[in-house]
Amino acid sequence: MKGIIVYKGKYGTTHQYAGWLRNELDLHLAPAENCKKYQLELSDVIVIGSSIYTGKLLIGKWLKNNIDTLRNKKIFLFAVCGTPVSETKKLQTYLESSVPAELLHQCKVYFLPGRLVYKNLSWTDKLLLRMGAMLTKEPEAKNSMLAGYDNVKEENMDELVNDIKTFAGIKAEPVLQE
């Protein structure tokens, strides 16, 4: 089984999850901007990771640009965000706004908890976060938006890893690297 992990993130959490997956599954890891078409074509399984930023998957444009190559591939998509897994309607909206419908139907999707370290944010992101907090009516949610959090754990990926291994039936091998 040949495969690749393609990811796009903003502050490092998606890369961290992708790295853990690489170590667990022994697949090639490529930032979306460095992923080559032939790597996707050679892959039997494609794991795609993206952080969610302002309600959209950062990898959305890449998905649209590579739709022809991704069509009919087995795709496991993980999205990293601060939105609780219990908020299924909101999470589904994020997917629908970023993933082409024909790809969404062939993806198995996993939402993984993220991290927010306020001091590491750009000034623009700090401003956006403060504006979002001001618009939030629930005091507890408002405070948690600005307090930061770190829910990143390797075991958050257990279901994803098990599903990929089950699909592969054998230990996956990496796609050729340049």
Provide keyphrases for this structure:
single chain, 178 residues, Rossmann fold, 2 domains, two-stranded antiparallel sheet, 43% helix
Provide structural commentary.
With about 180 residues, the protein is an alpha/beta fold. It has two domains: about 140 residues, 3-Layer(aba) Sandwich (Rossmann fold), CATH 3.40.50; about 35 residues, no CATH class. It has nine helices and nine strands. The strands form two sheets. Strands 1, 2, 3, 4, 5, 6 and 9 form a seven-stranded mixed β-sheet that branches. α7 packs antiparallel against α8. The longest helix has 13 residues. The chain is globular.
Write the layout of secondary structure elements.
Elements: E1 2-8, H1 13-25, E2 28-31, H2 37-42, E3 45-53, E4 56-57, H3 60-65, H4 67-70, E5 74-81, H5 88-98, H6 101-104, E6 107-113, E7 115-116, H7 123-135, H8 139-147, E8 149-150, H9 158-168, E9 173-174
Parallel strand pairs: 1-2, 1-3, 1-9, 3-5, 5-6
Antiparallel strand pairs: 3-4, 7-8
